[in-house]
Backbone:
């Protein structure tokens, strides 16, 4: 990562703001310029040390940037990328932080002008909070990592630059094709979020002094922003549907064993599920 | 709670061991006697300060006790209660810590001799760990509480004694009919556990550097003991099935909105689920 770089962060929410804080604190960029339509967000980003400069004008934000990072909700990434591309200097690199990648990568590979090099990325980090007020370098902790999703159109320099950018921020970088990324994240993040929302919606209203810890823990992510998550679930809907069918199979097996009072089968299913979970790195 | 009491804890696992530690540390009993078939468990309980005396003989454990607390897996509570009753002195009180209450309370109300006063209890506390090695007074923290499930057969003295016992251990006591207890716990603990096991079983094996935090959190309870949870799910199967149907309804609504790409409906459902979760006391 050349320290002489000017990095524009478009969208100063939890991820964009936290990224800016780390880039500035670790001196991974010469200048971090932030774009937000909201002047209060720009002020907050400035006072939190997330940006060197802030602007509500997209052209001003991106025209001198060496790297432009789109850190908006997934539904806004493609249209904003196309607008940014009109203003970016030749050779500048565009990347994003979207939680689903297939739709974004396919659309930008098709629609971006050749002069703008794009590679998708997804920092697997964050919390149920949103907005610049929740930004903190702590989200990029030892368990966080970034998935870069190169495609046939990705050029090497862009891949190297974006890998280097995130390599300075999170402890681990990995590469996956966008489709594979989407299938894995559907099963391990998007579906879990959907189940948490469904569980929260179906829970009884009152009756206990407080909800048991298992419920609170399983539904924490249902405190996440509904707009953000509607966009993620819709943008990755076919992979989410496939993961849900897989979940249906394992939950149907459990239900059957319970209904039939088949303790042996039930214990075996639970033990298998436990073994899978025990194998997960916790970090 | 008279400090002159002798309390027998039958089953020295996570809950029994932790209860003994608190009773002794806070001097809530004159003597805590522990029963386990496993001599190593008795030794561990002694060295952890969970019991004053330990024995592998049930009669020795319970015959002088003023209160007998059954802290075994739910499937063993009824048969052990009936054995204990044969040895208990007149006027002694029997209680349990089972996570489901309907089957236990109904069976013991029917089968116990009149001389033994029984009232069911469920300390809502614990973790995914099991066994005396995991016992700690910390499980009875500020968010823990105990649900006492009196029935038509419960006598006042037993209710007072068991309420007083748990009142010294957890910050809050509440009373619920066993059936209501089971419906509430099915929806807020037993179903969440089953979903966590199902999610863990359906997750892809590898492909990511580590599982996202949402997955780890939603499946932590899938690290729980399969035998214990098979017994809980089976003993509360009709309430679990009812809670699962309720969950089906809210998850079907989400899936439909996703499949139809109905962002407005999806956002509304997620927002409703979030509002429910935001309303939960965290503590």
Residues:
């Amino acid at each position: 990562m050349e320290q002489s770089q000017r990095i524009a962060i478009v969208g100063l929410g939890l991820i964009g703001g936290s990224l800016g804080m780390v880039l500035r604190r670790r001196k991974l960029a010469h200048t971090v310029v932030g774009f937000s339509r909201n002047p209060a967000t720009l002020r907050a980003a400035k006072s939190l040390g997330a940006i060197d400069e802030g602007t509500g004008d997209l052209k001003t934000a991106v025209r001198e940037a060496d790297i432009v990072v789109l850190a908006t909700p997934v539904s806004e990434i493609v249209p904003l990328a196309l607008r940014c591309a009109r203003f970016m200097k030749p050779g500048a690199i565009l990347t994003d932080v979207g939680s689903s990648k297939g739709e974004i990568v396919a659309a930008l590979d098709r629609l971006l002008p050749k002069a703008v090099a794009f590679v998708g990325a997804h920092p697997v980090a964050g919390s149920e909070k949103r907005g610049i007020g929740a930004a903190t370098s702590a989200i990029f902790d030892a368990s966080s990592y970034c998935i870069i999703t190169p495609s046939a159109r990705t050029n090497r320099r862009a891949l190297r630059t974006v890998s280097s950018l995130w390599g300075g921020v999170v402890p681990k970088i990995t590469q996956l094709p966008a489709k594979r990324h989407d299938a894995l994240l559907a099963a391990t993040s998007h579906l879990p979020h959907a189940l948490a929302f469904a569980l929260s919606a179906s829970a009884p209203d009152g009756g206990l002094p407080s909800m048991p810890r298992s419920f609170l823990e399983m539904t924490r992510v249902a405190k996440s922003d509904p707009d953000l998550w509607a966009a993620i679930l819709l943008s990755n809907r076919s992979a989410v549907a496939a993961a849900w069918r897989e979940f249906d199979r394992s939950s149907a097996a459990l239900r059957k064993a319970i209904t039939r009072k088949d303790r042996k089968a039930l214990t075996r299913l639970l033990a298998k599920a436990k073994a899978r979970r025990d194998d997960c790195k916790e970090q």
The longest strand of chain B covers residues 117-124. Chain B touches chain A through 89 residues (CB under 8 Å). The CA atoms of residues 254 and 270 of chain B lie 8 Å apart. The domain at 181-278 of chain B is CATH 1.10.3660.10 (6-phosphogluconate dehydrogenase C-terminal fold).
